[in-house]
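Title: Comparing notes on inverse folding

I've been comparing how different people in this forum approach sequence design from structure. To keep things fair, I'm posting one structure and asking everyone to reply with a full sequence. Here's the target:
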């Protein structure tokens, strides 16, 4: 006899108080319910119930076995439910948050492919450069750039890292000269996202390890830093996806193109109890497909 069916009969017998009540609940005969119970006792070589003409009592082993059967049946039901979710088409609203530059230049150009693939999903995308609280603010997934805190209670899927590029306008370089070595940055205006963002600037030389490049202008937006560089306000270090088109058009000049600048890690993060959602799962897998971890994030359409 099927073991799980026998366990269900036994659990209901304990909870309903009799084999006949369990049989009615399951839609089987009392005789069949009795066979399930005897099958369990034979399999275990242990008595589960002490039965008299008026009532039944759990044996000591039977009481422990009842609790174990309930847990096993719960796990089986939960697994079945998860399997059903795997086959459900993604549907409903998915709230996403991403940094402004990534969201504008990398995410938006590929979203049409996702929405064509999953027409029943509605997307709400919030672009901001602060770290959001997924649980409190109701986001199902966030794109995070940079190193993640080790104690963050999130599941992180790596995406293609940000490739950084250092650029300045032809006008700025005509006025201030072309930096030939990293040490030369000490004598230039280095546009900064924030005071701590200067840590991203290369400091391969010992001199730079003790002195930071100057940053008279700080702007908390990558696009604004790009525009500042275009207008000759200084040297900018930003993702290649933001600057590459301007370099190709001659509006910006790439500095130190022969040197490998550090990448910045990119992750899709979500709360650990949310991945059973078909729409979240489909979107995370789509991000990994579009931005595979082994690649760098390019500017869409750029060579």
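Reply #1:
Here's my take.
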């Amino acid at each position: 006899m099927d073991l799980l069916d026998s366990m269900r009969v036994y659990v209901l017998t304990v909870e309903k108080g009799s084999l006949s009540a369990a049989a009615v609940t399951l839609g089987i005969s009392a005789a069949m319910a009795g066979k399930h119970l005897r099958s369990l006792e034979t399999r275990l070589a242990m008595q589960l119930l002490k039965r008299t003409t008026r009532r039944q009592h759990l044996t000591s082993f039977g009481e422990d076995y009842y609790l174990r059967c309930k847990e096993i049946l719960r796990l089986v039901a939960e697994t079945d439910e998860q399997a059903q979710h795997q086959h459900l088409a993604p549907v409903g609203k998915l709230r996403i948050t991403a940094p402004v530059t990534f969201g504008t230049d990398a995410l938006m150009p590929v979203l049409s492919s996702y929405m064509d693939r999953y027409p029943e999903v509605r997307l709400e995308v919030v672009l901001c450069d602060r770290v959001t609280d997924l649980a409190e603010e109701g986001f199902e997934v966030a794109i995070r750039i940079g190193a993640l805190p080790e104690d963050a209670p999130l599941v992180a899927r790596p995406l293609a890292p940000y490739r950084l590029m250092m650029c300045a306008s032809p006008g700025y370089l005509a006025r201030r000269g072309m930096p030939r070595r990293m040490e030369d940055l000490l004598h230039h205006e280095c546009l900064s996202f924030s005071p701590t963002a200067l840590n991203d600037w290369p400091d391969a030389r010992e001199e730079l390890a003790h002195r930071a490049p100057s940053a008279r202008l700080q702007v908390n937006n990558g696009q604004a830093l790009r525009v500042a560089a275009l207008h000759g306000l200084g040297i900018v270090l930003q993702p290649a996806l933001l600057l590459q088109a301007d370099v190709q058009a001659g509006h910006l000049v790439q500095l130190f193109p022969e040197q490998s600048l550090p990448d910045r890690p990119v992750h899709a993060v979500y709360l650990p109890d949310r991945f059973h959602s078909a729409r979240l799962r489909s979107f995370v897998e789509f991000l990994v497909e579009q931005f595979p971890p082994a690649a760098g994030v390019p500017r869409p359409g750029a060579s």
